[in-house]
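Write out this protein's structure.
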Amino acid sequence: MDKAYAHFEASLLRLSQQAQSSARHTFFAPLTSPDAASIYSMTASDLKAEYITFSAATLDGVAAFISPFIDNMIQHPHILRLIQREIDLASARGALSSPVATYDETTRLPYFMACIMETLRRDAPAQTILPRLISKGGLWYDGVLIPEGTEMGASPYIIHRDTHVFGVDPSSFRPERWLEDPARAVRMEKYGMWWG
């Protein structure tokens, strides 16, 4: 971690010098100003930690999603054929930009989106217990009141395999579960802990 901090410090210094010499404002300019800590109510160390956390989360999170998505397509060739057919039909209708479809266009591919949701559910990128605070009024659980402000955590792996929410086959990769009942899909998404 010391090496990462040292690299971050050197990068900030270099960017600060470039910005001062060219009057160019960069994304990091607010972090290099003398009063950065007072603006953000964070110390320089806090800002460095946030930068490293967000950078790592972005890179790791994307990779942690794409890898199982590709694996699911390889393990289920019939699903890959259905996605390919949906994409081919949308492309033939002119519903997809070329050579790269836009995000909005891809959200109008229901089976493709179901495969994304199913990958996020079954192979969630964030597989650690993620702390949450109990909201105002507390939470009644199994006849016990848990006071507001209490820190609790839940495992995405366990939550995403709850048969009351995700059906009797939660360990199976089955994108159709997201298309069978719109109300159930909304409920499943409510319980999703894909990114934390």
